[in-house]
Amino acid sequence: xxxxxxxxxxxxxxxxxxxxxxxxxxxxxxxxxxxxxxxxxxxxxxxxxxxxxxxxxxxxxxxxxxxxxxxxxxxxxxxxxxxxxxxxxxxxxxxxxxxxxxxxxxxxxxxxxxxxxxxxxxxxxxxxxxxxxxxxxxxxxxxxxxxxxxxxxxxxxxxxxxxxxxxxxxxxxxxxxxxxxxxxxxxxxxxxxxxxxxxxxxxxxxxxxxxxxxxxxxxxxxxxxxxxxxxxxx
Length: 234
Fold this sequence. Notes:
The chain is an alpha/beta fold. The protein has a domain at 2-88 and 152-227: P-loop containing nucleotide triphosphate hydrolases (Rossmann fold), CATH 3.40.50.300. It is 31% helix and 26% strand.
């Protein structure tokens, strides 16, 4: 379980997160929504200690992520809005292997994880392809594979569908469905709920660094326009 308690984070004098508390249980498919500047990305960057809170705590399976970021980064896979920002190698296979290599795993286990992760996103024949030659949708799937190779309990994706054409969008959505069905917690940060609201278990809306709505997506949709988020049914 991810537990956030009284979390405060400031950029200068402005509070991006203002005493926020939230619990996300294992295996939940959760949408994190809100207008630009509401604190969504700042919040998820605390999940694996990419940011350090000014006050409050974030724990993953009862471990404080600030005290032990390695545990947090093993349990939580993060996929950023722009996949190119997280690539560290020139080829698909080398990039997906990077995380497991840094865990100190033996080569046979690394190879197994890379193969399984690439198969999960339908890129099992792409190990030697250069990342800079891939389409945007393929790059998004490589980023997901890199996170999956860590065998995380939770996969956090920040605007994973932005800029994707329909086939790529559909492919990413299908893979998220499969992960959720297998018990991986899926947390999607988004301002666009199309194709997502019918899949998720829960919708959490932020405004000015605080949780202002926490409902099932079907119950939450009517309140979204007042929070600066478009109702996907309209």
